[in-house]
Specification:
160 residues, eight-stranded mixed β-sheet, globular, 4 helices
Amino acid sequence: MLTLRIAGTIPESIVDGPGFRFAVFTQGCPHRCPGCHNPQTHDPNGGRVVPVLALMRQIWQSRMNLDGVTFSGGDPFCQPAPLAFLARWCHRLGLHVMAYSGWTLEELRAKPECACLLNEIDALVDGRFIIARRTLELRFRGSSNQKLYHLRHGQVLSVE
């Protein structure tokens, strides 16, 4: 059975990407950025383990109200394979898939195990949160060093 360790979910979020989103907060983050919005997700042994199938059921039940699904954290790229599976399934429903990571796109590309998830997401917010660069001006980002990439099959279409 395919599982994920998560901190929780929000079935209808309007702050975790464009439109109405089903947000999955993964558990475990090696970055531990000072001032992180979700410090409770840092411990890789925290949260709870859930079957990916259970998340699929929740998304299926909400699908008519959703524009997309967002993987946040923690760092979703600590669990790329089960999230890639979930992202492929979400695309079959016509949902946009977005992920946040403390690693930069270049760092993620250097990790072969992350390719499966990079190839399945439509948008990526990358880079560690830096409290000295905190901003409320940038869409879906917490600090000015972070970039919002629009992707297709892991290739960059545009950058904000």
